[in-house]
Design goal:
about 280 residues, five-stranded mixed β-sheet, globular, alpha/beta, Protein-Tyrosine Phosphatase, Chain A
Length: about 280
């Protein structure tokens, strides 16, 4: 891993934010991060996580009763959701699930959780290609692969980046968890925007993103155990899956250069000052 080590205070803060669950490897609270005005984000409002399919009964009780989880923002593709099947949180009436894929899909833009109630539809053979594709934004071929992928989310599904943030901003009392498969790429991009709106400095956003590297071995082991992700996990080595600080740092630099920062990108895509204020309040007060 090439990111710089955290200092003692930052390391303790980061460690305290992990939520150790039986069924996930990469769940942590976005509370406790410093903001540029001297404040901190509030714990218990927004979590980030990897796949929630294998939560234990104890995990579900802890999330619902102790953490007060009330909303799940799922960034996986429709194919992933259908192939993985219903996770245990889907059986909890008080938890709302929302789906916003960040990858282009061939048709099937319906409510995946409504479809899920019926018999599993027959998936086209080429849907397997959309599980973990590497989308590249036009004009960004000179950037590193991970940076190109992240810019691809913004280029190809900007409406769903915005929709995911709207869901977080408008969430009911209690906690919201944002997740994808590994909780590092798609989740990392949406979380970066949320933290930027909350006033968290770029370097703290970068450090939060890179924190997933601490659990990458466990994360890969879990994903390899799933038929949905096994081939992708085996095809690439640990190093290629490991998030690096310079990736998110470069994405934020490009957002600054091209749009005046993440907030400028959001404003340009219809998520203006009023909605940004609501998202900031969700994370700050």
């Amino acid at each position: 891993m090439s990111s710089a080590p955290l200092d003692g205070v930052a390391e303790r803060r980061a460690t305290d934010r992990w939520l150790r669950l039986d069924g996930t490897a990469n769940t942590r609270d976005l509370g406790g991060l410093p903001t540029s005005d001297g404040g901190r984000t509030v714990p218990g409002r927004v979590l980030r996580s990897d796949n929630l399919q294998t939560l234990s009964e104890a995990d579900v009780r802890r999330l619902v009763d102790d953490v007060r989880l009330r909303e799940v923002v799922d960034l996986r593709t429709t194919a992933e959701v259908l192939l993985e099947g219903r996770g245990p949180l889907r059986a909890v009436p008080g938890v709302t699930h929302r789906h916003f894929t960040l990858l282009p899909e061939r048709g099937h833009h319906t409510d995946v959780f409504a479809v899920e109630e019926d018999a599993l539809p027959e998936l086209p053979a080429d849907w397997a290609e959309s599980i973990l594709p590497r989308q590249v934004a036009e004009g960004d071929q000179g950037e590193p692969p991970a940076v190109r992928s992240y810019l691809g989310y913004l280029a190809h599904r900007p409406e769903n980046v915005v929709a995911a943030l709207r869901a977080v901003a408008a969430a009911p009392d209690g906690a919201t968890v944002v997740h994808c498969a590994a909780g590092k790429d798609r989740t990392g991009v949406v979380v970066a925007f949320a933290l930027a709106v909350a006033g968290v400095p770029h370097e703290e956003i970068v450090a939060d993103y890179a924190l997933t590297a601490e659990v990458i071995d466990d994360l890969m082991t879990r994903l390899t155990a799933s038929p949905t992700y096994a081939e992708d996990m085996v095809r690439r080595d640990v190093a290629s899956h490991t998030p690096r600080a310079e990736t998110m740092r470069r994405v934020l630099e490009l957002l600054d250069e091209r749009h005046g920062g993440p907030q400028g990108w959001l404003t340009g895509h219809g998520f203006g000052a009023e909605e940004q204020a609501a998202l900031r309040a969700r994370l700050r007060s």
